[in-house]
Design goal:
The protein is an alpha+beta fold. The chain has 17 helices and 18 strands.
């Protein structure tokens, strides 16, 4: 399986609407990892044909490889057509930028022209991941160097995370938002997020259209109008408000969404509500693939609880002839017993008072919300709108929001049972839970993630082998992702430029996930680990053909 390192900005943030200039993409790409079915195909082909970007090798572009500071500056140098003659006779102050390095010319040109500075006075950190804030500043500085109009009207204060924009990056962010290089996602700019080479190709192509537009006016002053086109061509024509210049752009549309079920490892928190990463893997997968991705993880849940929320294991509002259950006509909360069966085995729904994919729920067709009385096992159901009083005298199936919101085009990711702490001999119980959730998936487009926490799920090796063998017997073995083995590969640290510490060495000697990819509790992943996992999941979704755009 090909190795893909994914530290991604949202596709919508960087891609948005892709500009088409006079140079059509008609050169066959030499890159085996750039296929027409991939969302990044057009951008990479465009940049390759126009000499804006080169591959990692003659046959690989590396679309999901982490974007480093050196890579980005090299892209600007390619964009500018920099040669040795463009350098001044100066000695670089950066001890990590030597003349023999492939990025020396680009970094020195950018430094000498005030486009880029070092992380310190003597280091550039060429292999450091480029953040969104850094990218914005570099684009702004390069635009100044190019003589472009950087005096754009842009207000970033309306974004939810505007307070996280560093002061030194504020002008750059305003410029990138004002010129639509960045458009945000879910009303966030995520200045600390990182990017891949695929996103680099897309934003470089957008900037190419910006700097080479067919009129002298600022791109942000163009008005969008949708020209009549054939169905699904997605061509949008922009008309400048200051002149008659026009420019066509292709609007990329992505269909379907990804629904990720799991516990705190999916949710991205410690069970006690403390974030372990700014962007958990479900959100990052959505950013990579350019689709909506729902995070239905709840910390502390066992497999049964997850399956109940998803619909794989039914649960009910308890009622009988002798113990009826009544939903009043008004919105008064009513106590409710949630059970798994007629024997009255309790159903524990949600955890830590979190009800992701639970609310709003339906009981007997009545829409309402479930709450739990603090420090108790007592649940209340509150209907959302007044209506007819209903009395039930038998078990009534509860339909969670995750069940009723399920769509036929959903792609489901199942990652369960970290909190069950199964011994190896309990594999049949784990498989029964998994089978129930697979049966409840709205389509056969799903993937199953193997157990990860070797220091928590002691029998992870036996259990993962059992899950894989079970899926292979079902004829769907390709849907299994061995997360632990993938993340435990020491080559990841090499490719990320991370020098293993003593704890990494110890973990890797045992075949465990390196500590540098884990959170402090060594049960969850840190942001680097989540980004790697997201790339792994996204690749599998593409490889299985679930997304073809």
């Amino acid at each position: 399986m090909k190795r893909l390192i994914c530290f991604l900005l949202t596709v919508i943030m960087l891609c948005g609407i892709i500009p088409v200039t006079a140079n059509a993409v008609d050169t066959e790409s030499p890159f085996t990892d750039v296929k027409e079915s991939h969302w990044w195909y057009n951008a990479i082909a465009y940049c390759y044909e126009n000499g804006l970007l080169k591959g990692m090798s003659e046959t690989e572009f590396g679309p999901t490889v982490i974007l480093t500071r050196a890579m980005f500056v090299q892209a600007l140098a390619n964009f500018e057509g920099v040669t040795d003659e463009d350098l001044k006779d100066e000695v670089s102050p950066f001890t990590d930028v030597k003349e023999s390095y492939w990025f020396y010319l680009a970094v020195e040109w950018a430094r000498q022209n005030g486009i880029v500075g070092g992380m310190t006075e003597t280091t550039f950190v060429p292999n450091g991941a480029l953040t969104r804030a850094q990218m914005a500043r570099l684009f702004h500085q390069y635009a100044i160097y190019k003589g472009l109009n950087v005096d754009v009207e842009s207000d970033v204060s309306g974004f939810d995370d505007s307070d996280k924009i560093p002061e030194w990056a504020l002008d750059g962010m305003k410029y990138c938002v004002g010129t639509e290089l960045f458009v945000g996602d879910n009303n966030k700019l995520t200045p600390s997020a990182t990017a891949t080479r695929a996103q680099l190709a897309t934003v470089i192509m957008k900037f190419h259209g910006l700097s080479g537009s067919s009129c002298e006016h600022q791109w942000s002053m163009w008005m969008c109008t949708i020209a009549p086109t054939e169905e699904d061509t997605g061509i949008e024509t922009r008309i400048c408000t200051q002149c008659d210049a026009q420019q066509s752009r292709v609007v990329e549309e992505y269909k379907g969404r990804i629904v990720c079920w799991g516990d705190s490892v999916t949710q991205g928190i410690f069970t006690g509500f403390e974030d372990v990463a700014e962007v958990p893997y479900p959100e990052r997968v959505g950013e990579i693939l350019g689709v909506e991705s729902l995070n239905y993880g709840i910390g502390g849940e066992i497999g049964q609880q997850i399956a109940c929320r998803q619909g794989g294991i039914p649960f009910y509002a308890y009622a009988s002839e002798t113990m009826p259950f009544t939903i009043p006509a008004d919105t008064t909360p009513v106590e409710i017993d949630l059970v798994l069966n007629e024997d009255g085995d309790p159903a524990e729904i949600g955890n830590n008072y979190i009800y992701s994919a639970v609310n709003p729920m339906r009981i007997g067709g009545v829409l309402g919300e479930l709450t739990k009385v603090e420090d108790s096992n007592i649940y209340h159901f509150t209907r959302l709108e007044p209506g007819e009083e209903l009395t039930f005298t038998e078990l009534t199936r509860v339909e969670t929001f995750g069940m009723t919101d399920s769509r036929a085009d959903d792609i489901t990711v199942l990652w369960i049972c970290h909190n069950d702490i199964y011994p190896a001999e309990a594999l049949p119980d784990l498989l029964a839970t998994l089978d129930s959730m697979i049966a409840a998936c709205p389509s056969d487009e799903y993937v199953v993630l193997g157990l990860m926490g070797e220091r928590y799920v002691k029998a992870y090796a036996e259990l993962n082998a059992g899950i894989k063998a079970h899926l292979e017997e079902m004829g769907v073995g390709e849907k299994f992702l061995d997360v632990r083995s993938y993340l435990a590969d020491p080559q990841h640290l090499v490719e990320l430029g991370i020098t293993p510490n003593a704890r990494d060495e110890y973990f890797m000697s045992n075949g465990w996930i390196p500590a540098s990819l884990q959170a402090e509790d060594e049960l969850h992943l840190n942001q680097t680990g989540y980004d790697l996992l997201a790339g792994y999941v996204a690749d599998k979704i593409v490889d299985l053909g679930y997304l073809t755009n």
